[in-house]
Queue: 2 jobs
Job 1
Amino acid sequence: MAGRGTPASPAVSALNVICRSRIGAVTRAADLRIFALAGNFLILASPPLLQCWGGGDTWPYLVATLLLAVVNLGLVLLWRYSAANGDAPTASPISHTLAVIVTIAAGCALVLASHAWLHQILTIPNDPQRADMLIVVQQGIRRVVQGKNPYTIYHVP
């Protein structure tokens, strides 16, 4: 930590300039939204890393899905219009309520429709009786990693 007599590092100086140039909670909220949007990509990339630490189960996908839902829900709830759109018309409370109801109904329909499908996909290890193409794709990727030609005839048990 730099004292009064020692100069601060260039990174700290740049951060101080950025913080001083940003005025008000609106710009800080905009920065937070940008970091949250970037965090979505990190969350989407996290399941393989979590599987390395905790084993080859499906829990990393559940954790990543829940984190993604929480981050995006926070983005939706905290999103504010910029000052340039201050004179734009806003939706009525009834429209907001209707949008929330439609979103919840769509989420429920998505969960119900994809439940059996996700069970088939997330079965570990893959069962060739239920997911034969996943086995073929997995074997093709394995051959590519080994430097071999993936275009061959595969025999699925």
Job 2
Amino acid sequence: MGCDIHGVMEVDYFGDQTYWSGVVNLGVLDRYYGMFANLAGVRDYGEADPIAPDRGMPDNPSHMTKVAYEEWAEDAHSLTYLTVDEFFKADLLGIEDNKWMKGWKAVYEMAKALSEIYGNENVRLIIWFDS
């Protein structure tokens, strides 16, 4: 059985880390087990050093995130969140030329644009997986 990623990219428009708004549902992300392992240790066969394994839900998720997660809660696992800086450290090599990685490239570009506007500390991804 395959494993897929779900989640939401959020922005703290006010910069005080108290009120986050969901801006993008990460349903565009393609199945890429190398990235799953690098981000959260999912489908890791001992080769990755996961950036953000099993952190759970942050204390202040956006409404969009709560609703999206509730849709998957029964089948969801490995719920975690990561800062945009952490996301940028993930192994994004090869997404430029791989037609199956277009979704990852789009999310990367959006995270980059939002961080330029609001600052890296005010952009994050909340992700979970199903299998």
